[in-house]
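Hi, here's the filled form for the chain we discussed.

Project: internal
Contact: R.S.
Residues: 151
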Amino acid sequence: MKAISLINHSKGAVGLRFFGLGPHLKPTNGLYKLQKLLDSNAFWAKSRTINDLKKCLANSDVIISLWVGNEIVGFGRALTDGIYRGVLWDIVIDQNHQGKGFGTLIIKNLLSSKKIKNTKKLYLMTTNKKLFYSQFDFKEVTSQKLLIREI
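And the returned structure, exactly as it came back:
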């Protein structure tokens, strides 16, 4: 069985962005593998460019990746002001690795990260995983409306 590695990237994931680093700080074409993970497993993340992923990572406060051997199988990130509000984004587990506890591992590491753990209100959007996120005390809110401005 291949080793499982969870990486709590530094703010902005410099190693992943510039050098494609994966487990044990080894070059693995990690950024391209992340692009493929998102493209293959999340309809809302299809066709993200490498340059856009670099910007996305550069501006993220907390970034977690999960690897089996040298293949990325899970990912999640968060933005926060560190006290009042935060948002979890892009939580993805490769469809061939779902049901193994990897999503739980990503969420627990995001929620326990230094920048997120004391944030008073965390937001999360999901299309079809409401039950999964409810185990982490996320609740559906009907008192607010989601508004979107798209460019």
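Let me know if anything looks off before we file it.
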